[in-house]
UniProtKB/TrEMBL annotation:
Residues 4-83 form the NmrA-like domain. The gene is CCR1. InterPro entries: Epimerase_deHydtase, NAD(P)-bd_dom_sf, NAD(P)_dehydrat-like, NmrA-like. The lineage of its organism: Eukaryota, Viridiplantae, Streptophyta, Embryophyta, Tracheophyta. One of its GO terms (molecular function) is oxidoreductase activity, acting on the CH-OH group of donors, NAD or NADP as acceptor. It comes from Platanthera zijinensis. This is Cinnamoyl-CoA reductase 1.
């Protein structure tokens, strides 16, 4: 694959940055799309080894077909990574919060709770953090919720179809779509005692009913991608990572890393002590390249490594770093499913130990000044 040109969408994001770094180290030439090439948050990309020779940044919003086409033209393959990723917090109904925050004149920052149930705080709902402050000031609450849906679902779904259409037009050999395990995990008819594999799909009605807009955005996007590939013959593979942790390459902190920071620092809001499947961001980048490069790879690939409850993660972290506050307030979650990455492992994928991911994450946060120790 030495010297082959590929496009990576959303190149400056958390997972995409590790992917770009890996691809450069393997000799690929990259057209990376970012929404603002001049924004300093993308500067880290320019500092990667071989970036000055082999990385070209293109300004492209996934909702702008022409911009995408420019970046994809001349490439052999595409990694479509860009998609809005919200935060994860248990909050009361944001409509109630909205008016309370308005009265206080405070900045409104609500991040959604991921797949949580009705709890003592009321009915938690998901909202996108995008432009929330501005939205809160200028919109009514129902339009706020509408905007949240639009901000997440449209870029995921329309963005994916734009990418695929450009790929067809250009004659791209293979497209790898970064999907998510959330497109698998919400299925009410899957047998409770059976490990979930790639044949399982989240049910759209369930995602709608639970206002899981992120899950819905990813599920609609991946489903549409498969339909498009079936119709046109475009060579598509998808990878569905679970919860991704590990050190960051970019200067801004992404949503899942913010959640880990919250776990370590502790927050006053309860967190759902559900079974997460953690996977290291560097192992995700490896998986993406492996699936892309393996000619016989086909279909979907779950990329999930370590099933663990949050309280287990905290126990592990505390044994290594006793001097943080840690989250103490939890709510419970219903029956949990386990995910299998056997299909990915048959291609040769291996995941590093969870301890290594946790230690590297904490060391990164410490060096970045994002953690304050408390007296033991
Ligand atoms: N982190 C996880 O645990 C996890 C797990 C499973 C799947 N995933 C998937 O992995 C991918 C990357 O996520 P991440 O964790 O690396 O999050 P991230 O750092 O927030 O990256 C998301 C990227 O999407 C870009 N983006 C969002 N809306 C866009 C638009 N309209 N046009 C162009 N670019 C847009 C963002 O660009 P800007 O910088 O311009 O905002 C950013 O580069 C996503 O598809 C996500 O669903 C993540």
């Amino acid at each position: 694959m030495e010297g082959k040109k590929i496009c990576v969408t959303g190149a400056g994001g958390y997972i995409a940055s590790w992917l770009v770094k890996l691809l450069l180290s393997k000799g690929y030439k990259i057209n990376g799309t970012v929404r603002d090439p001049d924004n300093e948050k993308n500067d880290h990309l320019k500092k990667f080894d071989m970036a000055s020779e082999n990385l070209q940044l293109f300004k492209a919003d996934v909702l702008n077909y022409g911009e995408l086409f420019e970046a994809i033209q001349g490439c052999e393959g595409v990694f479509h990574v860009a998609s809005p990723v919200p935060g994860f917090k248990l909050v009361p109904n944001p409509e109630a919060l909205l008016s309370a925050e308005h009265q206080n004149g405070a900045i409104l920052l609500i991040l959604h709770n991921h797949q949580c149930q009705k709890g003592s705080l009321g009915d938690p709902v998901e909202v996108s953090p995008c432009d929330l402050e501005v939205t809160a000031l200028s919109h009514g609450s129902s339009s706020l919720l509408q905007k949240c849906k639009t901000d997440m679902i449209t870029p995921a779904l329309t963005g994916t179809l734009n990418v695929l259409k450009a790929c067809s037009e250009v004659g791209i050999k293979r497209v790898l779509l970064v999907s998510s395990s959330v497109t698998i995990l919400r299925n009410s008819s899957w047998p409770k005692d059976r490990v979930m594999d790639e044949s399982c799909w989240s049910e759209e009605h369930l995602l709608r009913e639970t206002k899981h807009w992120y899950g819905l955005s990813k599920t609609l996007a991946e489903r549409a991608a498969w339909e498009y590939s079936k119709k046109t013959g475009l060579n598509l593979v998808t990878v569905c990572p679970s919860m991704v942790y590990g050190p960051l390459l970019q200067s801004t902190v992404n949503a899942t890393s913010l959640m880990l920071l919250d776990i370590i620092k502790g927050t006053s809001e309860p967190m759902v002590d559900k079974l997460w499947h953690f996977v290291d961001v560097r192992d995700v980048a490896d998986a993406l390249l492996l699936v892309y490069e393996t000619a016989e790879a086909s279909g979907r690939y779950i990329c999930a490594a370590h099933p663990s409850y949050l309280h287990e993660i905290i126990t592990k972290l505390k044994s290594i770093y006793p001097n943080y506050k840690y989250q103490q307030n939890f709510t419970e979650f219903g029956p949990e499913y386990r995910l299998s990455s056997e299909k990915l492992k048959t291609l040769g994928w291996k995941a590093r130990p969870l301890e290594e991911t946790l230690v590297d994450s904490v060391e990164f946060f410490r060096q970045a000044g994002l953690l304050e120790e408390v007296a033991a």
